## 1
Amino acid sequence: MKEYDLIIIGGGPAGITAGIYAQRQKLKTLLITKEFGGQISRKAVKIENYPGFLAISGQELIEKLVNHLKKYPIEIELDEVTTVEKKEEKFFVRTKSKKEFVSKALIVASGADPRPLEIPGEKEFLGKGVSYCPTCDAPFFKDKVVAVIGGGNAGFETAIFLANYAKKVYILEFSDKVKADKENQERAEKTGKVEIILNARAKEIKGKDFVEGLIFEDRISKKNIELKVEGVLIQIGNIPATSFVKGLVDFSERDEILVNFETLETKVPGLFAAGDCNIGKYRQIIIACGEGAKAALAAYDYLRKIGAL
Ligand SMILES: Cc1cc2nc3c(=O)[nH]c(=O)nc-3n(C[C@H](O)[C@H](O)[C@H](O)COP(=O)(O)OP(=O)(O)OC[C@H]3O[C@@H](n4cnc5c(N)ncnc54)[C@H](O)[C@@H]3O)c2cc1C
């Protein structure tokens, strides 16, 4: 079995940056990821808060990050990590395609997956009108009426993007006010196609072969209301993708990995967690990149301290 100084799990902003920093320290590094880009690939409108770029599409930023990473001789494995074990000071990483890799240090940068609504019809109509990814599926909703669940920034950006295609877009927000930035609220209004419904609890997605309607409860009147929609875009936040380190590290009650923010080390020596998979409060690309850099530098210090370099 091939042994590495460092294995990085995740090909989003945190994992890619960790890879660049590890390579600059000449660490023998393997990066394992299901795909490159992570959540940026679900970004519906341009990114306007990554320093150095006034506005850049998610796809373009991913390409730039990956090209930078690939300038270095890092090894890359496109696969899903299923388990991690620590035995005799080494990390054993197993993947879905039954491969096993070993390293002396490990950075988990596996980010987060979309949070499901968990209502009837959601699973049945996934890919048949139900979607978590506006950039992937928006053209499918050309001239249709659609609903976006979630009135935060992601929900509003989804609605703004969908308005380029759809006839009408409802945004359903559970609470009595939307949480999106004022700027996103103004942009949504300008489309002339977005209608916001507050105090709405989504209850069921209906249809035959494809989505035909969405039932929600008006939380004030307690009445069930059916909207005739052909698409439901779910944007209610994320769940950390951390199940493969269960039993190894400590977690918050929301499955975020607990770390020491000075080094991003977990309670397990040599195991670091960077980006949206840890307990950090602010979830942004620049923060994930910063944490990827920090974790790689801390992993280098750790490897030197244990005499592995
Ligand atoms: C719709 C949307 C819009 C956003 N807009 C902005 C914005 O405008 N500006 C901003 O700064 N931030 C924005 N964000 C937040 C930003 O995208 C995240 O904070 C950032 O992507 C986190 O990076 P990460 O590397 O920690 O995780 P992720 O981006 O989630 O990447 C995780 C990576 O790990 C891989 N992975 C997961 N599990 C495994 C496994 N078991 N095995 C192997 N690989 C695995 C995934 O495939 C992925 O490549 C947005 C997020 C969303 C969802």
Note: The chain is about 25% helix and 30% strand.
## 2
Amino acid sequence: MTLLDVARARHDTPGCAEVVHLNNAGAALPPAPVLDAVIGHLRLEARLGGYEAAAAAAVKVDAVYEAIARLIGCLPGEIAVVENATRAWDMAFYALRFKPGDRILTSRAEYASNVIAFLQVARRTGLRVEVVDDDEHGQLSVRDLERRLDGDVKLVAVTHVPTQSGLVNPAAEIGRLTRAAGVPFLLDACQSVGQLPVDVRELGCDLLSATGRKFLRGPRGTGFLYVSERLADTLEPPFLDLHAAIWTSHDAYEIRPGARRFENWETNYAAKIGLGVAVDYALSWGVEAIEERVTALAARLRRRLGELPRVTVQDRGQRLCGIVTFTVDGESAADVHHRLGAAGINTSVSAVTSARYDLGGRGLAAVVRASVHYYNTDEEIDALCAILQY
Ligand SMILES: Cc1ncc(COP(=O)(O)O)c(C=O)c1O
């Protein structure tokens, strides 16, 4: 067991002195080095000019790709840095081509924005969207996926850790099946990157999307897409600009090689540099150590919530993570969230419109979501439970 220096983590995190932050699945509190990097670059822009500051910070910008590559076990050229996880995911998904009769396999845990994109493309192309059954633990059934995986399946797209539950879907088992079948595997790792080890080679995914502001503790408005080297140059991004492609002659252009064809020219350099610092900061703690502490805190929270008379913990799955979801008898999720907020405890609400296949299937209109990070403490968890006692 690795012991993480919680006092140092909290000392590095100015927000810990202000709030009990159990909304890390919404946006985590950034550590001081991230804050300093973002503000430092904004000051540089103000002093030198934006373009000149970007040129002066070129090494830091390159370091962002190297840091992400170290984090997820890929090459820097396999990363596109974009505005958020949704844009990353969309750039990959809308680059794929489908025809009538093609099928996509997805999970019950799937995030609303992904499903909306499936449904739009299904309407346009005649593609069919199939939701793989859950197994007896409430995670994607690998056996059902295997049964459905045939020649008509053109994509398997799965959410690793859903927005609305503590579940970790069995991504490596899914990757083994998709590799064997030669079907692209798009993993939404928005809620998993930063709280548990994610290695694209071990998971066997071809495409992966993630965000900066959640468990990575980076700035808002940052995200990234991993595209395997094998696939990148075969995919045409849905949007091109003069960064993604070069205008080579009067009526011709060439798309840039590698994952950066999925980026666009203008970007928030301060936030991008901050994302790289956030990744390095996470790596300095060690993602295994982060997962160990996060899962221990979340287990304590589930156990304590389970002891309260009106509370039902709603998480399912064999492997659980730092997201804890629950309902309170006789009180809406929004009211519980507000009651906790009034006591200085940040949580959030996941509504059925964010995860209809899952929450809708379980007859839940909404759940309260309390999501821990390694800088949270047992005392903070106990403070939340004390409020829910009445
Ligand atoms: C599972 C999952 N996927 C994707 C997203 C979208 O991320 P972003 O808001 O960075 O686009 C979220 C956001 O909550 C999420 O929970």
Note: The pocket of pyridoxal-5'-phosphate is lined by residues 84-86, 111, 159, 162-163, 188, 190-191, 211, 223 (CB under 6 Å).
